[in-house]
Amino acid sequence: MSEAFQALVVEKGDAFTTGVKTLTRHDLPAGEVLIKVAYSSVNYKDGLAAIPDGNIVKSYPFVPGIDLSGYVAASADGRFREGQPVLVTGYGLGVSHFGGYSELARVPAEWVVPLPEGLSVREAMIYGTAGFTAALSIKRLQENGASPANGKVLVTGATGGVGGAAIAMLAKLGYQVAASTGKSNEADYLTALGAAEVITREDVYGGGSVRPLDKQLWQAAVDPVGGSQLAAILSKIAYKGSVAVSGLTGGTSVPATVLPFILRGVNLLGIDSVMCPAQERLALWQRMAAEWKPEQLDVLVDREVSLQELPQALEDILKSNTRGRVLVRIGA
Q1: Lower Cβ count inside 10 Å, N or C end of the chain?
Q2: Cβ neighbours, 10 Å, residue 259
Q3: pLDDT per position as a tens digit, 233-250
């Protein structure tokens, strides 16, 4: 294996720069498993890592990329063998530890998930962090009583990575999905993913005035948006229903009251895919590779980009100029 390899590096000195550079294995952080990266993906957090005031990266120079899939190049841990297909999401990857935008990555063995049967390394990153977050949201909803027999499930931010993956998996599991989007021209895409109904943000949030309790419209919701819209969702969830929240693109302030919780028994479920325990992580990826896997997973893909094309894709996700998932083709 060549000592030198290519990676996307962000640097912050007299000026902030993002570009492809040549690194060596000596530049990589410590870890038991060296991975030849095949694919990564573009997530909102990655976009923030590539700007000077994104508040993601604390130490420079740095290699972003919060997920990756590929093949073990070397391992000091007996659980992994050379050539084995694996994936990594969460923990410190792409935040405090060099990430997936690199032809080689070295990570702690505890972070590594053996690629489940039924998934290719490319499909693993069609899911990526966004898909895993969506799956974790669905799991939590089911644990709190969600069932295809109990009515519609709302998915907000439907054209984003988490939203799109949630729609596709929920539809595969037999749920009726109401997909909420601010992009009226994406109805065909959302229907192709499996949405039974496409609604606007205004249908969820109204004119911006949130009633403490409103008409009960959905048994549950997957919400990667947060903010004021979350308060409106809570007011419209059916008795004993749940909302799984995983994002904050709509803001961090939620002007809600306690009424949905104490009068309807609504559950507000926080979703953290970063520190999800290893055994739960592996079991969920196995479901995503089998009974939860959509027939047309590729519908989620907006485009594939190379390392050289990656800076534009990172800029695009911050401007909401992407749909679904953007794959980063590295060593495939």
Answers
A1: N
A2: 14
A3: 999 999 999 999 999 888
